[in-house]
From TrEMBL:
Gene3D superfamilies: Jelly Rolls. This is Crp/Fnr family transcriptional regulator.
């Protein structure tokens, strides 16, 4: 096939191991681009052609603190009773933030996915009094940096930069947490399940039901009943 007649779609990844002339190869952005894009998004810095300005140098210094790490599903990354030591940028995959009681009862608080920057927001989690755990739900490709080095790089970038950066996420988390609590107190499980479908359609497809149940605040049997009821409802014409 002549290249001028090639359709603008790539061949299926399962074919890319073979050597046919008909296969369409697109160059893949280097992994570091995902890291830089994630950091530029988190700091509200627009990266352009000019790499020689203070903002671009700051991002590239921050990026140099990160190492890429691939992890299997159910890999513990941070654990309660230990200081939370790292900051993570998710390139691919899903992680869950949860608490676990001494008797093994788990409460899932949050799922993080592609593009999320995860770090120990609250002072307590940076000490041995940390009560939060972070674990991969799926195989994940992460960028990992030491939290103290990350914070010190932001602090040395400019006066008040760390507080500016931290405040945005702290406000976001406070709002999410209070909204979750409010919904739990004022809405039925059915209404909350509907919101889960509307607001997080991707999570429903990727995260195991028992973890979604914990996040929604229902027992797995209730979650399964809701799932079946909604599936049947969507089937009826
Ligand atoms: N590093 C973090 N990233 C995102 N959410 C967090 C983080 N630390 C705490 N939280 C959430 O913020 C909530 C604050 O109230 P809780 O301690 O009950 O539960 C906490 C988690 O749900």
């Amino acid at each position: 096939m002549n290249s001028s007649f090639r359709p603008p779609v790539a061949s299926a990844p399962c074919l890319l191991g073979s050597d046919s002339d008909d296969l369409i190869h697109y160059s893949v952005a280097p992994a570091e681009v995902a890291l830089l894009n994630g950091l530029s998004h988190a700091f509200g810095i627009c990266l352009n052609e000019n790499q020689d300005n203070p903002e671009a140098r700051f991002l590239s210094h921050l990026a140099s603190l990160f190492q890429q790490q691939r992890v299997d599903p159910e890999t513990p990354l941070e654990k309660h009773d230990r200081p939370w030591g790292n900051v993570y940028l998710v390139q691919y995959g899903i992680l869950r933030l949860f608490r676990e009681s001494p008797a093994g009862k788990v409460a899932v608080h949050h799922f993080f996915s592609e593009g999320d920057l995860i770090w120990p927001v609250f002072g307590r989690s940076r000490t041995v009094r940390n009560t939060l755990c972070l674990t991969s739900v799926l195989p994940a490709t992460l960028w990992v940096a030491d939290f103290a080095a990350f914070r010190s790089a932001i602090q040395s970038y400019g006066d008040g930069q760390w507080h500016k950066f931290a405040l945005v996420l702290t406000e976001e988390i406070a709002e999410l947490t209070s909204m979750r609590e409010y919904r739990k107190h004022t809405m039925s499980a059915r209404e909350r399940y509907q919101l889960l479908l509307d607001e997080y359609p991707e999570l429903i497809k990727r995260v195991p039901d028992n973890q979604l149940a914990s996040w929604l605040g229902v027992v797995p049997a209730t979650f399964s009943r809701l799932k079946t009821a909604f599936a049947n409802q969507n089937k009826t014409p």
